[in-house]
C-alpha cells in the first residue's frame, strides 16, 4: 500500500486584530501562534518585523509578523491594534408612570453599558428611591454604576403614580332627518385619566334607530378601562321629516328713477307647508334708484319646522346715457362699390343694439372719381337721446405692377434678384409664410439680401411687389436650389464568400462606382437607399484596396468609403469530458473566428449560443442523458458557417467509499483510513468548516490534522471526492482523549534586570501562563525543546509580588503550577518633578527628571498604566482618560533602564473654573434661554424642575439653549449649568421665568328663548378671539369671534329652560378670558279648535302665546304643518280628509322650531 501525497503548503500565522486602552501594556507576541502542515507548531519562530504601537496615545497602529518553515516557505501577516480612550459607562433608564396599587421594581427595565466593559446592568446601584405606590404623586429614583476603570455614571428618573378613575363617555343627543345615514359611533368619544383616549374601545350595547321612519330612538354605549372600571351612557336620537323651504327670486335691472318693490315677483314654497310667499322677510335692501350702481336685496323665510332659507339677489340701476355711433373713416379705389352703412353700428346702455335705427343724413361720395368726401349719420334711443357722427371717405385711383425673381442657390447666393414694372415702389420677401421687412426700390431692377433668411432648399419663398401705400400688386415664387450632397456606407466583403459589395446611401446619390486598387470600375444606377455592386470578379485578394463611390445624376462625386475586405473565416474548438448526472455544462475552448457554439446530440443540432473570449460552456444537463449519446461541439462563425467540430467524451458518474481510524487527541497528527472506487481526493470537515482537499493514490490516506482537531467535542468528517471534487462518501472520525501529564520549572526573576520569566517544562505541557498577585495573564506556547520565555517586565512590578507559572496541555488543561522567586539588584538613582494638572483642561502629565530614569509609568488606585520611554530631561504622558477627578490619587513612577522604580511622585490635580449668567425667560415670547459664560466653561445645559437636560457646546462666551418645549409655566424651577470639557459642573445659576401677560375681556349675552331662538347672540370686548358654549357642563365646539358680535347656533344644543348654559371667551393663545351665563326662557301657548263639519273645506280655530304653526292628526296620522295667521287664528284645509264623525281628529299648536306647545281634540259633525 502507498500513502496519499501531501502538498508543500506555506505556514499559517494566527494573529487577530486587537483593541487596547490608553495605558495598557502591549506584548506583540501575546496570543500569536504559527503552524505548518509539515513542521507543526512554529510559534517560537515568529519574528516581529514592524511595530509602531504607542499605548500612551489613542490611535490605530499596525504590527507585522513573519515566519519561515523548513522548506523556506515564508508567511507574513499584519494586524491592526486600536488604542482607545476610556469612556464613562452609560445608564439607560426612562421616566415611568404607574397607578396607585401597582408593584414597582426600581431596577426593572434599567440597563447600563460601557464601551470597554460591555454590559454593566448587574453592577447598577439604586442610591435613592422615595416611590410610594399607595399614594398618587411624583417621585424620584437615582442610580449609580462604576466601570472597571473607576469611571462613575449617575442618573435620576421621575416616577409618576397616578389615580385610577372611571372612564368618561362623551355623547350628545342627536336630531336627524328621514333618509339620513346614521353612524352610532360618530362624534362619540371616551377618555380615561390613566388610559387616555378609549374611543376605539366603545361598545354600542343598544341601538333601535330607524332612519326610514320619523320618531324618537335610543342608543346606549359602554366602555371599560384597563382597570376594569365601566362607564355607560344613553342618548336620544330624533328622526324627523324636515326639508328646507325654497325662495324664488331673480336678479333685476332698473334705470335711474324707476320704482322698485323688493317683493315683486318673489315667491317661496315648502315641501311640507306649501306656499310660504306671505312669510317672506326682506332682511336687507340697499337699493337706491336715484343713483346708478349695483345693490343687493336679501330674503329669508322659515317653515313650520324651523328650517330657514335665505337668498340674496343683485339689483342693477343703470344711467340713461346717449347712444353711441361706431363709424370710421374709409379709403376706396376708383370703381369700388360704396355702401355708407357697411361696418357702421350704434348701441345704447339701455336699448342695446341700435344699428337698425341709424339714419344717413348726408353723403357726397362719388366712387367713380378720385377725391375726398363726407358721410353724416344720426341715431335716437327710446328715451329721445340723439347722437350724430361724420366720417371722411377718400377715393383713390388704382395702382398696378408686376415682378420677377431669379433662382436662389443656398450657400452660393446672398441676394434674391429680379425686375419689376408699373407702380411698384417697395419689394418684400415672404419666407415660409413669414413676411420680412419691405425695401424701397427705384429703376426697374431690385436685389434683396436673403442669405440669413433663406436657409433650406425646402423653404417656400415669394418676392412681393408693393405700391407706395404698401398694397400688394404682384408676387412671384423664388426657385430655391441647393448643391447636391449625399453619403454612402459599405458592408464588409469576404473573399470566396460574398459576390456583391453591399451598403446604403442617402441624399442626391444616383449612381455607385467601385474603385479597386486605384482603378475606377463602371458606375451603376441606383434607386431607393440600398445598393449592391457585383464584385466577385473584381476583388480577388484580401490586400486589395477597394472604395465604393457615390455620384449624383451628373456624375459628381458626393462621397466615398473604403470597403473592408476580409479573408474567409476559420477556427477550432475543443471539448472537455462530460459526466452524465454530474456535469451540467459541456465546456471547452475555441480559436480564430468562432462566434457561436452549437451542440449536436445523436444527430440533432441544438440551438447555437454566442460566445466571447476563448472559452465556452453550453448547458447540456437536459440534452445529454446517457453515456451512449453521440455528442459533438460545433464551432460557427458570426454568419453561422461551421468552422470546426469535436466529439464530446460522455462518461458515467463516479463512485467510491471511505473509512476512518480513531484519532487520539494529543498523540496523533494525522487522520488515517482506507478508500475505494473513483476516490481521487480526501477532505476534512471540522465543526462544519470545510478544509483543503489532498490528492490520494493507492487505497489508503493520511491527512495532517494536528492544528485542526483540538478537542474531543470537535465534529470531524473525512470526505471522499472524485477527481472533479464531487463528494462520493463521508465518514465521522472518532476522536479519543489522551491523558496528559507534565511539570513546569521556572527560574528566578531579578527585578530591574530580567524582562522575561524563563524555565523548562516536561511531558505534555504545551502552553504556559503567569499569574501575578492572583491575576492570570494570557497563555503562550512553549518552545519545541520544552523551554519557555514569558515577557513580564510590565507585569512584575515589585519584589514582593507573588508570581506563579502554570503549565497547560494543548487542550488547555492545567497540568502543573510553580511559584517564581522574585529578586532585585543594587539600587540606581534619579528623581522626577511634576507640573500641576488642571482637570478639564490638561491632557498630558508634564514635568522633568534626573539621574538613571529611562522610562515612566502612571498608577491610579490598583491600576498600572503603560510604560513609555523618556529622553532629554523632560517627560510628557497622555492622561486625559486617567485623571477623572480632583480627588484621584495619581502616582508617576520613574524607572531605570532595567525597569526598576527609582522615583515616585504624586500628581497635584486642580479643577477647572468658570461662571455662567442667565437672562430672564418670557413664556410665550422667548424660544431660547440665553446668557454668557467665563473661564473653562465649554458646554451649557439646563435643569428644569429637577430634570437635567443634555448639554450643548458653546463658543465666544455667549450661549442660547432651545427651551420653548421645556419651560411651560411661570412656576417651573430652571437652572442654567456650565460644564468643563470633561463634563464636570463648574457653575449654575437660576433662570428667572416670566409668565404670560394677563388677558382681559367681557361677554354680554342676549336672553335665549328655548323653542323660538336658533342662535345665542351677544357682544364681546377685549382679548377674546374665540367663544365656546357650555351646555349642562359639556363644552361645545369653539368658533371664531369677529367684529365684537357673537352669533352661535344652539337650536340643537339648548332644549330646556332648565339647561345650565354659559359661554367661555378664549384668547388667541387658548387661555380662558371670561365666562358669562345665558338667561333662558321657553315658549308657551295654547290652541283651540272650532267644531268641524266633515263636508266643510277648512278647520278653523284660535291660538295664544308662541304658537306659530299648526298641524292636524287624523286617526293617528299627522298631516303637514302650516303657519298660522298673524291675528291669532288659523285655517287648515281638510276637505276630503275626514270621512266620518267617528274619526279622531286632533290639532297641534307648535312653536317656531316645531315643538308641540298645545293640542286640542276637534268636535266633528255631519
From TrEMBL:
Residues 401-482, 486-567, 571-651, 656-736, 742-823, 830-910, 914-994, 1001-1080, 1085-1165 form the Bacterial Ig domain. Keywords: SH2 domain. The keyword Lipid biosynthesis does not apply. Signal peptide: none annotated. Residues 16-83, 94-161, 172-239, 250-317, 328-395 form the Pesticidal crystal protein Cry22Aa Ig-like domain. GO terms for molecular function: phosphotyrosine residue binding. InterPro entries: Big_15, Cry22Aa_Ig-like, Ig-like_fold, SH2_domain_adapters. Gene3D superfamilies: Immunoglobulins. The keyword Cytoplasm does not apply. PANTHER family: HEAVYWEIGHT, ISOFORM A. This is Putative peptidoglycan linked protein.
Amino acid at each position: 500500500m502507498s500513502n496519499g501525497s501531501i502538498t508543500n503548503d506555506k505556514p499559517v500565522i494566527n494573529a487577530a486584530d486587537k483593541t487596547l486602552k490608553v495605558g495598557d501594556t502591549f506584548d506583540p507576541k501575546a496570543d500569536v501562534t504559527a503552524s505548518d502542515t509539515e513542521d507543526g507548531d512554529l510559534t517560537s519562530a515568529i519574528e516581529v518585523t514592524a511595530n509602531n504601537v504607542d499605548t500612551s496615545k489613542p490611535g490605530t497602529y499596525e504590527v507585522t509578523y513573519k515566519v519561515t518553515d523548513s522548506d523556506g516557505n515564508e508567511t507574513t501577516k499584519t494586524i491592526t491594534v486600536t488604542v482607545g480612550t476610556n469612556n464613562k459607562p452609560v445608564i439607560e433608564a426612562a421616566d415611568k408612570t404607574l397607578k396607585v396599587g401597582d408593584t414597582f421594581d426600581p431596577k426593572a427595565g434599567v440597563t447600563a453599558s460601557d464601551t470597554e466593559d460591555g454590559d454593566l446592568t448587574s453592577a447598577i446601584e439604586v442610591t435613592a428611591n422615595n416611590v410610594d405606590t399607595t399614594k398618587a404623586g411624583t417621585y424620584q429614583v437615582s442610580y449609580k454604576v462604576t466601570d472597571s476603570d473607576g469611571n462613575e455614571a449617575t442618573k435620576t428618573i421621575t416616577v409618576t403614580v397616578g389615580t385610577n378613575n372611571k372612564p368618561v363617555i362623551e355623547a350628545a343627543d342627536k336630531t336627524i332627518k328621514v333618509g339620513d345615514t346614521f353612524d352610532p359611533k360618530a362624534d362619540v368619544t371616551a377618555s380615561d385619566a390613566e388610559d387616555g383616549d378609549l374611543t376605539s374601545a366603545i361598545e354600542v350595547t343598544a341601538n333601535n334607530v330607524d332612519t326610514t321612519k320619523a320618531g324618537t330612538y335610543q342608543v346606549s354605549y359602554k366602555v371599560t378601562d384597563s382597570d376594569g372600571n365601566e362607564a355607560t351612557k344613553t342618548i336620544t336620537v330624533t328622526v324627523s321629516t324636515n326639508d328646507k323651504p325654497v325662495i324664488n327670486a331673480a336678479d333685476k335691472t332698473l334705470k335711474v328713477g324707476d320704482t322698485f318693490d323688493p317683493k315683486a315677483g318673489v315667491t317661496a314654497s315648502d315641501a311640507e307647508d306649501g306656499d310660504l310667499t306671505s312669510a317672506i322677510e326682506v332682511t336687507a335692501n340697499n337699493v337706491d334708484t336715484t343713483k346708478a350702481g349695483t345693490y343687493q336685496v336679501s330674503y329669508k323665510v322659515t317653515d313650520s319646522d324651523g328650517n330657514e332659507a335665505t337668498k340674496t339677489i343683485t339689483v342693477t340701476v343703470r344711467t340713461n346715457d346717449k347712444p353711441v355711433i361706431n363709424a370710421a373713416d374709409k379709403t376706396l379705389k376708383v370703381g369700388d362699390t360704396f355702401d355708407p352703412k357697411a361696418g357702421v353700428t350704434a348701441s345704447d346702455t339701455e336699448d342695446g343694439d341700435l344699428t337698425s335705427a341709424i339714419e344717413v343724413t348726408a353723403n357726397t361720395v362719388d366712387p367713380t372719381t378720385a377725391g375726398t368726401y363726407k358721410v353724416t349719420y344720426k341715431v335716437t334711443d327710446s328715451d329721445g337721446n340723439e347722437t350724430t357722427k361724420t366720417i371722411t371717405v377718400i377715393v383713390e385711383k388704382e395702382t398696378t405692377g408686376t415682378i420677377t425673381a431669379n433662382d436662389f442657390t443656398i450657400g452660393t447666393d446672398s441676394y434674391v434678384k429680379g425686375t419689376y414694372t408699373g407702380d411698384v415702389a417697395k419689394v418684400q420677401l415672404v419666407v415660409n409664410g413669414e413676411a420680412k421687412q419691405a425695401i424701397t426700390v427705384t429703376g426697374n431692377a431690385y436685389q434683396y439680401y436673403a442669405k440669413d433668411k433663406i436657409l433650406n432648399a425646402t423653404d417656400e419663398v415669394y418676392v412681393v411687389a408693393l405700391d407706395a401705400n404698401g398694397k400688394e400688386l404682384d408676387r412671384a415664387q423664388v426657385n430655391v436650389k441647393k448643391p447636391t450632397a449625399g453619403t454612402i456606407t459599405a458592408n464588409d466583403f469576404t473573399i470566396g464568400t460574398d459576390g456583391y459589395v453591399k451598403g446604403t446611401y442617402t441624399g442626391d446619390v444616383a449612381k455607385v462606382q467601385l474603385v479597386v486598387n486605384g482603378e475606377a470600375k463602371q458606375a451603376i444606377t441606383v434607386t431607393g437607399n440600398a445598393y449592391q455592386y457585383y464584385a466577385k470578379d473584381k476583388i480577388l485578394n484580401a490586400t486589395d484596396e477597394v472604395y465604393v463611390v457615390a455620384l449624383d445624376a451628373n456624375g459628381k462625386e458626393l462621397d466615398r468609403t473604403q470597403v473592408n475586405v476580409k479573408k474567409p473565416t476559420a477556427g477550432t474548438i475543443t471539448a472537455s469530458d462530460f459526466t452524465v448526472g454530474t456535469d451540467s455544462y459541456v465546456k471547452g475552448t475555441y480559436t480564430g473566428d468562432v462566434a457561436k457554439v452549437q451542440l449536436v446530440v445523436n444527430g440533432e443540432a441544438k440551438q447555437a449560443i454566442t460566445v466571447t473570449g476563448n472559452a465556452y460552456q453550453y448547458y447540456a444537463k437536459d440534452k445529454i442523458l446517457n453515456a451512449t449519446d453521440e455528442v459533438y461541439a460545433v464551432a460557427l462563425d458570426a454568419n453561422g458557417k461551421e468552422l470546426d467540430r469535436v466529439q464530446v467524451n460522455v462518461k458515467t458518474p463516479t463512485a467510491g467509499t471511505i473509512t476512518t481510524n480513531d484519532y487520539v487527541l494529543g498523540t496523533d497528527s494525522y487522520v488515517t483510513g482506507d478508500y475505494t472506487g473513483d476516490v481521487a481526493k480526501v477532505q476534512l470537515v471540522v465543526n462544519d468548516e470545510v478544509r483543503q482537499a489532498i490528492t490520494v493514490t493507492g487505497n489508503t490516506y493520511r491527512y495532517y490534522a494536528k492544528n485542526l482537531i483540538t478537542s474531543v467535542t470537535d465534529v470531524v468528517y473525512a470526505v471522499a471526492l472524485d477527481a472533479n471534487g464531487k463528494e462520493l462518501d463521508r465518514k465521522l472520525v472518532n476522536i479519543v482523549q489522551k491523558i496528559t501529564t507534565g511539570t513546569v520549572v521556572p527560574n528566578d526573576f531579578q527585578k530591574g534586570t530580567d524582562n522575561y520569566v524563563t524555565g523548562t517544562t516536561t511531558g505534555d505541557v504545551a502552553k504556559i501562563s503567569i499569574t501575578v498577585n492572583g491575576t492570570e495573564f494570557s497563555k503562550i506556547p512553549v518552545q519545541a525543546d520544552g523551554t519557555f520565555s514569558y515577557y513580564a517586565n510590565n507585569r512584575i512590578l515589585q519584589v514582593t509580588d507573588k508570581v506563579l507559572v502554570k503549565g497547560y496541555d494543548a487542550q488547555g488543561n492545567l497540568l502543573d503550577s510553580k511559584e517564581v522567586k522574585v529578586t532585585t539588584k543594587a539600587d540606581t538613582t534619579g528623581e522626577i518633578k511634576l507640573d500641576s494638572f488642571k482637570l478639564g483642561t490638561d491632557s498630558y502629565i508634564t514635568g522633568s527628571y534626573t539621574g538613571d530614569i529611562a522610562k515612566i509609568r502612571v498608577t491610579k488606585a490598583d491600576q498600572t498604566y503603560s510604560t513609555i520611554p523618556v529622553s532629554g530631561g523632560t517627560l510628557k504622558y497622555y492622561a486625559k482618560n486617567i485623571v477623572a477627578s480632583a480627588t484621584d490619587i495619581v502616582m508617576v513612577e520613574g524607572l531605570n533602564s532595567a525597569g526598576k522604580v527609582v522615583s515616585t511622585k504624586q500628581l497635584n490635580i486642580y479643577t477647572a473654573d468658570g461662571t455662567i449668567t442667565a437672562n430672564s425667560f418670557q413664556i410665550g415670547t422667548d424660544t431660547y434661554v440665553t446668557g454668557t459664560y467665563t473661564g473653562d466653561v465649554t458646554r451649557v445645559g439646563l435643569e428644569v424642575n429637577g430634570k437635567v437636560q443634555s448639554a450643548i457646546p458653546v463658543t465666544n462666551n455667549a450661549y442660547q439653549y432651545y427651551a420653548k418645549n421645556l419651560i411651560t409655566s411661570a412656576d417651573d424651577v430652571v437652572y442654567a449649568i456650565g460644564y468643563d470639557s470633561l463634563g464636570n459642573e463648574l457653575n449654575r445659576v437660576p433662570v428667572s421665568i416670566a409668565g404670560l401677560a394677563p388677558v382681559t375681556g367681557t361677554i354680554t349675552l342676549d336672553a335665549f328663548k328655548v323653542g323660538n331662538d336658533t342662535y345665542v347672540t351677544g357682544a364681546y370686548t377685549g382679548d377674546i378671539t374665540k367663544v365656546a358654549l357650555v351646555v349642562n357642563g359639556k363644552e361645545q365646539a369653539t368658533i371664531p369671534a369677529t367684529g365684537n358680535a357673537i352669533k352661535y347656533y344652539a337650536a340643537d344644543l339648548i332644549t330646556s329652560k332648565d339647561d345650565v348654559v354659559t359661554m367661555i371667551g378664549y384668547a388667541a393663545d387658548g387661555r380662558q378670558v371670561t365666562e358669562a351665563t345665558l338667561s333662558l326662557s321657553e315658549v308657551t301657548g295654547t290652541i283651540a279648535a272650532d267644531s268641524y263639519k266633515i263636508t266643510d273645506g277648512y278647520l278653523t280655530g284660535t291660538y295664544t302665546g308662541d304658537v306659530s304653526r299648526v298641524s292636524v292628526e287624523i286617526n293617528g296620522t299627522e298631516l303637514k304643518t302650516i303657519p298660522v295667521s298673524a291675528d291669532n287664528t288659523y285655517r287648515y284645509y281638510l276637505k276630503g280628509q275626514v270621512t266620518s264623525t267617528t274619526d279622531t281628529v286632533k290639532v297641534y299648536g307648535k312653536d317656531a322650531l316645531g315643538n308641540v306647545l298645545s293640542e286640542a281634540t276637534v268636535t266633528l259633525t255631519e
